[in-house]
Amino acid sequence: MSFITVNKLWKEYGDQVVLENLSLSVKQGEFCTLVGASGCGKSTFLKMLLGQETQTRGELLLEGEAFPGEPDRNRGIVFQRYSVFPHLTVRQNVLMGLELEQKPWLGKLFGGARKEALEKVDAMLESVGLSPSAHKWPHELSGGMQQRLAIAQSLIMRPRVLLLDEPFGALDPGIRGDMHDLLLKLWQETGTTIFMVTHDLKEGFYLGTRLLVFDKVRNDPHDPQAFGATITYDLPIGQTDRKLFEDIHESVSETARNQAA
Ligand SMILES: Nc1ncnc2c1ncn2[C@@H]1O[C@H](COP(=O)(O)OP(=O)(O)OP(=O)(O)O)[C@@H](O)[C@H]1O
Fold it and tell me: How far is the CA of 18 from the centre of ligand 1 (A)?
């Protein structure tokens, strides 16, 4: 059964068509990588999955029901930067979600409940390789460590859907490789359904299970906002050849040039 169903989905901001006629069916546990020119609506699509934005037309369904209109614990998101709390230590950053969930008014757990929560936090920190830094402050961490913390912060809530908006965009290429390994390991451990936006087409070609290319098939040079992007390629990872890579690269680059013109 389809876990997430996108049916003839449109998103417009005033006269600007951002996404047009998107249709997609995603199974639970899939790892979809989203690529496309800047401004093609990838982040907007993630925001709709998160419940921060609503479509203007069409359907977005989670297990056959309309998507919850507000963010909830079923969905976690990690941005390129700055999604951790600077005034909390690494351990407190990860603990906070559990505290707010169980004690929304007080924001604090005590006794056995706190001990149990801390055990989960420590296991999560171990899983992302941050145990030795548990008592550090975010500013004492490298960029890669901060992103591992942001991922831990999301995953501790056991989201059914994890949304990643260019999570490794600000990291050095060497560190990105380590982050890919970590992400694949966490995805296998948790079985969560992942949507990850990346600007790096190569990353999209090998990470996860499915590549979704967001692109415009129509362009009006006199009115660049008249047409939105749609999913032009939906490919299983590992079955694409060099020619296809070059075709997609050329098409996405042309859209980027048109957007900039
Ligand atoms: N809240 C908003 N109000 C009006 N326009 C918006 C809003 N959010 C996004 N847009 C517009 O929608 C279009 C798509 O933006 P979006 O951030 O989704 O693209 P993107 O593909 O994620 O781009 P990038 O790769 O640069 O992050 C842009 O033209 C943007 O200006």
Answer: 7
ipTM of the complex, rounded to two decimals = 0.96
What would the CATH number be for the domain defined by 4-74+160-260? 3.40.50.300
User: Ligand 1 centre and the CA of 10: distance in Å?
Assistant: 14
* Tens-digit pLDDT profile for residues 47-98: 999 999 999 999 999 999 988 887 787 888 888 876 789 999 999 999 998 9
Residue 228: CB within 6 Å of ligand 1? no
Which of 145, 95, 154, 152 lies closest to 119 in space, CA to CA? 95
CA–CA gap between residue 241 and residue 96 (Å, rounded): 45
Parse the chain into domains and list their residue ranges: 4-74+160-260, 86-158
Give the residue, out of 43, 50, 55, 259, with the most ligand 1 atoms within 8 A of its beta carbon, to mutate for a pocket test.
Answer: 43
pLDDT in tens, 235-251: 988 766 788 888 888 98
**pTM for this predicted structure:** 0.91
- The radius of gyration of the chain from alpha carbons, rounded to an integer in Å, stands at 19
**Ligand 1 site, residue 82, Cβ cutoff 6 A:** no
